[in-house]
Amino acid sequence: MNAIRLAIVMITIFGLGYPLVMTGISQVLFPHQANGSVVYNEKNQAIGSELIGQSFTSPRYFHGRISSINYDAAASGTPNYAPSNNEMIKRTEQAAKEWLKQHPGKSVDDIPLDLITNSGSGLDPHISPAAASFQIPAVAKATGLSEQELEQLVNKHIEGRALGIFGEPRVNVLKLNMDLQKLIQAKA
C-alpha cells in the first residue's frame, strides 16, 4: 500500500507539478522562446519560427540550406551520410549545379558549403555570412535593389557567436527576407 501511495505522489509531483512549474517559469522569464520563437509580420500574422528554416524558392529572396526533410519539423533529422557516400555526392553535385545556374560567372569553389549541404536537423534557419553574400548579386538582379543596399542588409543581420565563443557567425534567413521584403516595398 505504501508503494502505491508513493507512486501516486511521485506521479503527481513529477508528472504534473514539475512540468506545470517549469512551464509557468518559462512563460514568465522567456515568453517568446517558450511559445516557439514565432516571428510575426507587420499585420501581426505568424509567418514562421526563427528556429526553423523555411524554403524560399523565389529569386527575389535569399535561400537557406537545403533540407532533406523539406523543412518538416515533425521529421527532424537527416541521413548521416559520409562524404564518400554516392547519394550524398550526387545530391551535393546537383545542388551545386542549381546554384551555378542561378549565379552565372561563379565556380563550384565559390559556393559556400552550407548552401549545398544540409544541417544535422535539416531545419537550420541560418546560413553563414559568406552564403548570404554569395547570393547578393542574384537577389540584386531579381529585386532591382543595389548590391550595396543588400550588403548593408546582410551585415545588419549577422548574428555573432553565442556568448561570444560558441558556434559561428550566422544570418537568420527568415528575418533577413522579412527586412528584404520591407526594403522592396519601400522602394516600390
Automatic annotation (TrEMBL):
* Membrane topology reported for the UniProt record: Single-pass membrane protein
Where in or outside the cell is it found?
Cell membrane
Q: Which residues cross the membrane?
A: 7-30
UniProt key word Endoplasmic reticulum: no
Per UniProt, the keywords (alphabetical) are: ATP-binding, Cell membrane, Ion transport, Membrane, Nucleotide-binding, Potassium, Potassium transport, Transmembrane, Transmembrane helix, Transport
Q: Which InterPro entries match?
A: KdpC
Q: Which Pfam families match?
A: KdpC
Q: Taking the first listed entry, what is the main subcellular location of this protein, grouped into a coarse class?
A: membrane
Q: Of which family is this protein a member?
A: Belongs to the KdpC family.
Subunit field text: The system is composed of three essential subunits: KdpA, KdpB and KdpC.
What's the stated role of this polypeptide?
Answer: Part of the high-affinity ATP-driven potassium transport (or Kdp) system, which catalyzes the hydrolysis of ATP coupled with the electrogenic transport of potassium into the cytoplasm. This subunit acts as a catalytic chaperone that increases the ATP-binding affinity of the ATP-hydrolyzing subunit KdpB by the formation of a transient KdpB/KdpC/ATP ternary complex.
Mind telling me which NCBIfam families this protein's record contains?
kdpC, PRK00315.1
Q: What is this protein called?
A: Potassium-transporting ATPase KdpC subunit
Gene from which the chain derives: kdpC
